[in-house]
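Support request from a user on the community tier.

User writes: "When I paste my structure tokens into the form, the page sometimes reloads and wipes my input. The last time it worked, I copied everything first. Here is what I submitted, just in case something in the input itself triggers the reload:"
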């Protein structure tokens, strides 16, 4: 007998599918994955676990479908990954971001509210431990200068349509806690990397361009800084926040691996020189290109709240995680 019915939205995407694999190491819950299978979702990401989950193809913006799924399955937990996530796409076409990230999140909150909080069994019996875990991003805080860290108390100052849509969804989640008492927890993560990441993001782009001998595009002067978090470390943080996070709270999850973009490109090239040698260094392919409009300069996370309260710690540092990541892409070149 399984403990809980858990709905994982966006579970065929990069972080979602890693999370599904991660929790199925201890298969105490019944897992339902809901995913629209946009260009960024891929059923191949769930190949190793397909016999252990129920997969539903569908859109979180489809209110009727969401209501139907909740009334049919009576989920006790929701882990909400589904989102449009690529900043460059949000600049060229923001509409999908507003729909999926804001309206889609609202539909899930509303269905959770109706299922868990209305009627005579409100938050009792099988819904006594109900949880809505909302996965968000450090980009809601805007940009840092050379120093400082984002804490959970940092004011929101999103700069791209993507981060503004995530900030909006964070606020709607927050409002469901304060207004209706919905049992929510939000996590805000830094830049993830690792197996199954879509090829549009920086790290797979550098690997792909390098091995195909094409220019490796680095935006602006390459000095922008991101705080890199190995995806499995993110999954362990999400799991702890879901199990023991305080209701209505937000937890920042970051890898304490601040690196600038040119360093990332150079490290990948150095490792490829070793793992897939050719006559000249891959570094010769690095090319500076036009900057991203509104490009945030630096993200860096203070993760002390989740470390102290929930005993979480990142296990991987960037230099070990990137080697594993490159090995995975070299073995799965169709993913580049
Ligand atoms: C694709 C690409 C990116 N870049 C630069 C732009 C950024 O400074 C950095 C990382 O870019 P990427 O698009 O991979 O990731 P971010 O824009 O930092 O955002 C990512 O991390 C956060 C936390 C999320 O929440 C987003 O969902 C996620 O996409 O490399 C380049 O220089 N060249 C390229 O070809």
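"...and here is what came back when it finally went through:"
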């Amino acid at each position: 007998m399984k403990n809980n019915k858990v709905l994982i939205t966006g579970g065929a995407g990069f972080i979602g599918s890693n999370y599904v694999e991660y929790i199925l190491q201890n298969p105490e819950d019944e897992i339902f994955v809901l995913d629209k299978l946009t260009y960024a979702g891929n059923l191949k990401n769930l190949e190793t676990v397909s016999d252990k989950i129920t997969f539903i193809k569908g859109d979180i913006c489809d209110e009727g479908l969401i209501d139907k799924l909740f009334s049919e399955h009576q989920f006790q937990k929701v882990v909400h990954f589904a989102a449009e996530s690529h900043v460059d796409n949000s600049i060229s076409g923001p509409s999908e971001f507003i729909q999926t990230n804001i309206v889609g999140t609202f539909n899930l909150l509303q269905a959770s509210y109706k299922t868990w909080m209305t009627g005579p069994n409100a938050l009792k019996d099988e819904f006594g431990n109900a949880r809505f875990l909302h996965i968000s991003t450090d980009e809601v805080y805007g940009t840092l200068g050379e120093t400082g860290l984002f804490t959970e108390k940092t004011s929101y100052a999103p700069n791209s349509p993507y981060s503004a849509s995530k900030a909006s969804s964070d606020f709607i989640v927050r409002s469901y806690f304060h207004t209706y008492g919905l049992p929510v927890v939000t996590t805000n993560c830094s830049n993830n990397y690792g197996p199954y990441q879509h090829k549009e993001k920086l790290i797979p782009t550098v690997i792909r361009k390098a091995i195909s001998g094409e220019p490796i595009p680095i935006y602006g002067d390459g000095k922008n800084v991101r705080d890199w978090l190995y995806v499995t470390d993110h999954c362990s943080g999400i799991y702890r926040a879901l199990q023991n996070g305080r209701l209505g709270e937000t937890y920042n999850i970051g890898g304490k691996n601040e690196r600038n973009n040119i360093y990332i490109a150079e490290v990948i090239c150095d490792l490829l020189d070793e793992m897939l040698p050719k006559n000249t260094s891959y570094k010769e392919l690095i090319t500076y290109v036009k900057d991203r409009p509104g490009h945030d300069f630096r993200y860096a996370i203070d993760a002390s709240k989740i470390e102290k309260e929930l005993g979480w710690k990142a296990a991987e540092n960037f230099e070990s995680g990137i080697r594993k990541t490159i090995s995975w892409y070299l073995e799965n070149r169709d993913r580049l």
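Agent notes: The reload is a front-end session timeout and is unrelated to the input. The chain has a mean pLDDT of 97. The first strand starts at residue 5 and ends at 9. Escalated to web team.
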